[in-house]
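quick one before i forget lol
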Amino acid sequence: DYSAVQQLPYKQQTTMDTQLALKKLREEIDVGMQAIKLSIDNPLMASISDSDGLFSPLEGTYERIIRQAKHQKKLGEKEMNYELEREKERVKSVVREYEELHTPVLESCPICLEDIHIHSSAAACAFFSCCGNWWCGECCANNVADEKVSICPLCRAALPSNKELYNKRLLVCVERGLKWAQFQAGFKYESGEIGRHPNMKKAVQYYKLSAEQNHPPGLLNLARLYSDGVPGVIKRSTMKAMGYLQKAADLGNFHAQVNIARMLYHFEHFGLDADYPKAVKYATLASHYATVTDKTAAAEANSILGFLFLDGNHELYSSVNLATHYLGLAVKNGTASYDGLTEFKYCDALVQQNENLYPYHLTGFNAIPRVMFWLRKSLTAGQSAAKNVINNLESREKGKCSACNASEDEAAAGKKFLRCGRCKLYHYCSKECQMEAWNAGHKVDCKSVYC
C-alpha cells in the first residue's frame, strides 16, 4: 500500500536495493503509483519518481507495452483530473478577487423575476421603445421570436409594426436621456438605418452620450472605432480603445474582457506593452462568464487560455493537459476563431499529450486520427500551415499496410490497398489486416475523433 512508498529513505542515492524495491512497487502497487503521480509536488514523491523513472518510456514485448500503455492511460487520466481541480481553484480565485472589487449589477426581470447581470452583454436584456423599460433576453427570445406578443407587456402599448415607427419612438427615448436608446441611435446612424447614408459624426456623438452613462455596448463601440480609426472623425488610438474596454470590462461585460485578453495576447500587433498576467485574468473572466450565454466569446477566451498554457507564458505554467482542455472547449462547438489557428494549436497539444504518455503510435492509444480530423478543419478555416502537416502524415502512411507493415510492392500483384473510411489516413493490404487493426484498437482511435 501507499505507506510502503512513504517508508523509503528521503533523498537517498539510487542503490540496487532501492531499484529492486521500486520495481516491485511498480509491478504490484497500482494505487501507490497513482498516488505518486497525483502528489508529484511532494519532494519525497518527486525524488522517488526521479530515482527510478517510474514514468519511463514503454519497453519490452508487445504485450508488455500494451499492458504498460493501459496503465499509463490511467495515470494520464488521474493527472488530467488533478490539473483540472487545480485549475478550478485558480479560476475561483480570479473570479472572487474580481467580484470583490467590481460587484456584478443584478436586476430582476419584470416578467420572469430572474436576477439578470444586465452589463454582461448586449443580449442580456431587450428594451421597449414605447416606455423605455426592459425585459431579459430569454423572455424576449421566447416571446417575440415566436410572435406571441403584439403589445408591450409592461405599458400595454402596441409594439411598432415597422422600422420607421420604431426609429421615431427611439429618438423620443434618446431625448429622455436613456442610455440604451443613445447607443442604438448611434448604431443606426453608423449603419445608415436612420438617414439615407451612414453618418459617423452622429454615431460617435450618440456612442459618447451612452458611454458617459457607463453603458457597456456604447463603451465597446467607441473602443472599436478608436482601435480602427474613422477618417475625418476619430484618430486611431489604441490607448483610448483600451481605456473604454477597461471600463466596460470592469462593469462585467465579457465581450470587453475577451477583447482586452486578445489585444494583450497579440500586444505587438496592437503596439502595446506585454502584460500576460492581465491577459490571463481577463481571458479567465470571459471564459467563466460567457460559457453559458455566448459560445463565440467563450470559444475565443478558451482559445487564448489554451495558447497561454501551451506556450507557458509568464503567468501560467506550461501544461499540455490544460492546453488540450481549453482548446478542446474552444473547437468542440465549431465556434473557434483565429482562421483555424485554434484547431491547429489543438492538434499540437494533442500530439504532445499523446507522446508524453505513449512514445509510439500504439493502436488503441493513438491520437493521430483525431489530429487529422482537426487539421482538416483547420485547413478549411484558413490555416494554410495545416496543409503541409496533412501531406506529411498522409505520405508517411501511404504505400504501407498499417497492420503488417507490408509495402504495396510486397502485396499481391494488382491488389489495391484499402483505406480506413473514417480517418482516411491508414491503409491496409487486405480485409483481414484491416479487421485485425480495427479489433486491436483502431476503432477506439477512430471513434475518439467524434468524442
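fyi The first strand starts at residue 106 and ends at 108.
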